[in-house]
């Protein structure tokens, strides 16, 4: 089978060396394959995320984006291929090491997933309990919680319940909860889904300012072309289980390849 991947800029998509990139590679996925019976979801997917980078992965519904993320964080084992996060090969890690590694990865999933019965403060404190080793003994969590809340512009919501907040505010709180562990990598799964265009734009701006402030590396899974345009430094289009096309928004949106064009048609 011929390899029909389209790569702009870095022609050597499968380069083994970091020297071709100025920035350190924090996630490396090589030739990952995953099938469910006859459903071949990932067919040799490659991806690299570099330190401080905003990488957007776009794919149609059911193209395997969630499967890829699950393999990346060790929630699902690929059939074959290699996955490394911050220098550690996921397949070789025991539960404890995997847990430690996950504390350096922030997740912002679809729908925010705040605990309805907990206040904003309790929601944000929640991951601190789980990752005590990382944060050390914290006698007063208020300063840390307030710092995280102020970073998302919601310092006044400390004692409110999620039901008292708008969808956009809930998404911000979820981001504050992610930031409290000072993650090195943030995985965003559809960060703007279900939000009106103005709120979506605010969330995108917030993601950008957080990326600059914390120098996090961000992997953003989205269908939202506007989100990709504003936030991505580089994009990967996941088609037929492979990284079908790779490049900047400007490069990909100017492509005349029919499968690439399909992503940018309004
Ligand atoms: N645990 C599983 N068992 C069987 N099939 C699965 C499993 N998880 C995912 N799949 C299948 O893998 C394919 C890709 O699913 P995935 O959830 O990764 O898509 P997606 O790109 O994230 O879609 P969406 O954008 O709609 O969230 C689908 O056909 C799905 O049915």
UniProtKB/TrEMBL annotation:
The answer to keyword Lyase applying to this record is no
| A Pfam family this chain is assigned to | ABC_tran
The record places domain ABC transporter at 27-265
Signal peptide position in this chain?
none
Protein keywords: ATP-binding, Nucleotide-binding, Transport
Checking PROSITE patterns in the record gives:
ABC_TRANSPORTER_1, ABC_TRANSPORTER_2
Which stretches does the entry tag as region Disordered?
Answer: 1-22
**GO MF annotation list:** ATP binding; ATP hydrolysis activity
Report the PANTHER family cross-referenced here: PROTEIN TRIGALACTOSYLDIACYLGLYCEROL 3, CHLOROPLASTIC (PTHR43023:SF3)
What this protein is called in its record is Phospholipid/cholesterol/gamma-HCH transport system ATP-binding protein
- According to its UniProt entry, this protein's organism is Pricia antarctica
